[in-house]
Design goal:
The protein is mostly helical. The chain contains 18 helices and no strands. It is globular, with a radius of gyration of 19 Å.
């Protein structure tokens, strides 16, 4: 196996580890809510803090990578993420929960930028699309994490014990995989990226598409279990299974995504994805039975799956520094998207969760409406535009 293939599999493993942390957290949100004794509105407020942490920290990822090199930077950032997420389940009240989620968002965002930049570099060196597949491995990780979380919820295992064990396993797996990722070092005359810079105009346009997708993704990951429990009065295990179904369809779509984009082109793929996500949102809103809602969340996962990988791929082509360009798009996309749980909670507090997911459905249509910004100027809708 040559070094480039090893690097591809290694960064795929890191994507999987990152997703496993997210899945491990998402399925235990109802437990965390009860443990911290917070209302839906307070939970929504707390879930805004990952956005704050990510927005402040993601621009630093390019600087850290420049200072330490891509391999060492990713190893440190993924270890911080896998270890510190355990703080969330230890939080006994709203204030400590907000602090833990701030750290969670900051470390998640920096690790995300670093691993996506390496993924773009491998993709460019291989000369073919792989980023959707890498994000597919992230979704596989989310599926693994949520599957274990579903089992833990069914067995009534505390999130504290569940997350402590997961943190140890995932830290070992993530730091080990980093041994084989590309070790990119800055040239002697390469200027260090700024510690913080506003995203360029291109990042805002590309980020608009990512915003719609990540809003739907964040809302579904963090609120699907609560939706089934509170709106459709299901058991904790069935509620957690909705999150697992969402993660499953995302994983399947992303793994197949590179081939689909090569056949249909990025813009057409994203337009169809937006329609599928909209249908899923409609099913969730109209659901009178848990199975209908679970099918809706599954379609939402299918619809948003390839949008973010294509946004990052487009960002990686907009400037000479992939980390900095991706950080710009990630800041727009994830900062906006990570406020989704907070907005969902606020609307739920004022009315109900069904109204919240009407907003999710409307934004899902935005994926199709804004899809054309992923096509570079002068390029037709072929696989080259994604």
């Amino acid at each position: 196996m040559n070094e480039l293939r090893k690097a591809r599999y290694a960064v795929a493993a890191v994507f999987c580890v990152h997703g496993s942390v997210v899945g491990s957290f998402a399925t235990r949100v109802p437990w965390i809510q009860d443990h911290a004794s917070v209302s839906p509105g307070q939970l929504g407020l707390a879930l805004a803090f990952p956005a704050v942490g990510a927005s402040l920290a993601m621009p630093l990822a390019a600087r850290i990578t420049h200072r330490f090199g891509s391999r060492t930077a990713l190893r440190g950032l993924i270890a911080l993420f896998t270890l510190t997420f355990v703080l969330i389940s230890l939080a006994p009240n709203l204030v400590t929960l907000c602090g833990a989620l701030f750290v969670y968002g900051a470390t998640a965002g920096m690790a995300d930028v670093a691993m996506n930049a390496l993924g773009v570099e491998v993709e460019q060196r291989m000369g073919r699309s792989i980023l959707s597949g890498l994000h597919g491995m992230w979704s596989v990780g989310t599926l693994i994490g949520s599957g274990v979380g579903t089992l833990a919820a069914h067995l009534d295992v505390s999130a504290q014990l569940h997350h402590a064990v997961a943190a140890v396993v995932l830290t070992v797996a993530g730091t080990t995989a980093c041994h084989w990722v590309l070790d990119l070092q800055p040239t002697e005359d390469e200027e260090a990226p700024p510690r913080f810079a506003l995203p360029p105009k291109s990042a805002w346009l590309i980020g608009a598409v990512g915003f719609c997708a990540v809003f739907a993704e964040g809302a579904s990951l963090d609120w699907s279990a609560v939706y089934l429990r509170d709106v459709l009065t299901t058991s904790a295990a069935v509620a957690a299974a909705a999150t697992t179904g969402f993660a499953l369809t995302m994983a399947a779509a992303r793994i197949a995504g590179d081939a689909v984009v090569d056949r249909w082109g990025a813009v057409r793929t994203v337009r169809i994805s937006g329609a599928v996500a909209t249908l899923g949102g409609v099913l969730v809103v109209l659901a009178g039975h848990p199975l209908v809602a679970m099918a809706g969340f599954g379609l939402l996962g299918l619809g948003v799956a390839v949008v973010v990988p294509l946004a990052f791929a487009a960002a990686g082509r907009t400037g000479p520094n992939a980390s900095q360009a991706i950080a710009g798009v990630a800041t727009v996309t994830y900062t906006a998207g990570l406020i989704a749980p907070s907005i969902i909670g606020g609307i739920a507090q004022a009315s109900n969760l069904t109204i919240s997911f009407i907003l999710v459905t409307l934004l899902a249509t935005g994926i199709a409406v804004f899809s054309s910004v992923l096509r570079p100027a002068g390029v037709r809708d072929t696989h080259l535009d994604g």
